[in-house]
Specification:
By secondary structure, the chain is α/β, with parallel strands linked by helices. Helices cover 42% and strands 15% of the residues. The structure holds pyridoxal-5'-phosphate.
């Protein structure tokens, strides 16, 4: 979609690129780290400055206690953390449960690792699930369950009660829990982000994956992490070493500076800014007949494209790109069969681009 969008000069609300500004302290620290000669390989699990900053942050913000020396691995984004966790902790033929709609990467990276996904379908608008649905996704080979909260693409924020149910299920069936919390700071309307590992009884079987891609608008820097008990973190670190050697050295220092120096207000301001963008864009979607499922977190929105009267989500997304000049991702990309009446927009756009997208959608609706 990004290529198709560039070809027509549209507004790219497809890929979760996130083109809001990077905080100055992070950019300045990157330049300073290059000038200071932080140019060589780092330890396989990252520089101590970043591991320590992450340990402090995870304790202060998430109530999670990790040892910076043995329980945190700096990875190439949370995507890198997931790849390493999959390959280090699961074997080909093992199964992993995903909640659907899912982030396609979670499905595809599992498949590439030879791990077999099964899904628990969450239905709009509440995206709730019951224990029977969890049980029906269980296979004899299931070894792990993946939680993504706040969730891409639907913006669901799992409640503590829901996570407790996932935790009990994981204990009952002896599953690892992989939790992708990259959007942890982007929660709206007073919703609370709960880290799965804060549920004590599953801390020993949980791999928490996070990143600063979204929080500092540095998706191209590829700095993320996995945090887990040493018995899980060590093989994840070895896999990170084997695949990548290490994450980019100067950028690790820059992220450490951001994690250390940015005040609490930075994170609440960020959430408020995205909430305003969400409200603006969801308002326009409603106005033009693409009814949104208003998200509680992350920076995506699923919109109902059934009013276009097309058979597939791909046709709908291509039609919106062609006729309104706004790119989105066909809902079918987030389902293993389904999502044909949905499309996903990413509203992590600059004000100018978001305004332009809103205006183009309004003009498109007026012409219909
Ligand atoms: C749910 C989710 N996890 C992980 C990623 C990848 O993030 P990172 O840049 O940290 O690898 C994305 C990117 O869109 C995402 O939506």
């Amino acid at each position: 979609m990004t290529r198709a969008c560039v070809a027509v000069g549209g507004v790219n609300m497809g890929q979760g690129i996130c083109d809001t500004p990077t905080p100055a302290v992070v950019k300045d620290a990157a330049k300073a780290a290059i000038d200071a000669g932080h140019s060589t390989y780092t330890r396989f699990d990252g520089v101590p400055e970043l591991r320590t900053a992450l340990a402090e942050r995870l304790l202060a913000h998430n109530g999670l206690r990790f040892d910076a020396e043995s329980e945190i691995v700096v990875t190439l984004g949370s995507a890198g953390a997931y790849i390493c966790a999959l390959n280090a902790l699961l074997d080909p033929g093992d199964g992993i449960i995903l909640f659907e709609p899912f982030y396609g990467y979670h499905l595809n990276a599992a498949r590439v690792a030879g791990v077999v996904p099964s899904t628990v379908r969450l239905e709009a608008p509440a995206f709730a699930f019951d224990d029977a649905a969890l049980r029906s996704a269980l296979r004899p080979n299931t070894k792990a369950i993946l939680v993504n909260t706040p969730m891409n693409p639907c913006g669901k924020v799992f409640t503590r009660a829901e996570l407790e149910r996932v935790a009990d299920f994981a204990i009952e069936h002896d599953l690892l829990i992989f939790t992708d919390e990259v959007y942890e700071y982007l929660v709206y309307d007073g919703a609370e982000h709960v880290s799965v590992a804060s549920i004590d009884r599953v801390a020993d079987r949980t791999v928490t994956m996070g990143s600063y891609s979204k929080t500092f608008s540095i998706t191209g820097w590829r700095i993320g992490f996995a945090a887990a008990p040493a018995a899980l973190a060590e093989p994840i670190g070895l896999m990170n070493d084997l695949n990548y050697i290490c994450a980019a050295a100067p950028l690790q220092h820059a992220v450490a500076a951001g994690v250390r120096q940015l005040p609490r207000g930075y994170y609440s301001d960020l959430a408020a800014e995205y909430q305003a963008k969400r409200d603006q864009f969801c308002g326009v979607l409603t106005e033009v007949g693409l009814t949104p499922v208003v998200p509680q977190g992350a920076y995506y929105v699923l919109a109902d494209v059934s009013s276009l009267g097309l058979a597939t989500a791909k046709e709908a997304a291509m039609t919106l790109l062609r006729d309104a000049g706004v790119a989105s991702i066909a809902g079918s990309a987030f389902y293993d069969g389904g999502g044909e009446q949905l499309t996903r927009f990413c509203y992590a756009k600059s004000t100018a681009d978001l305004d332009r997208a809103c205006e183009q959608l309004r003009r498109w609706a007026a012409r219909r």
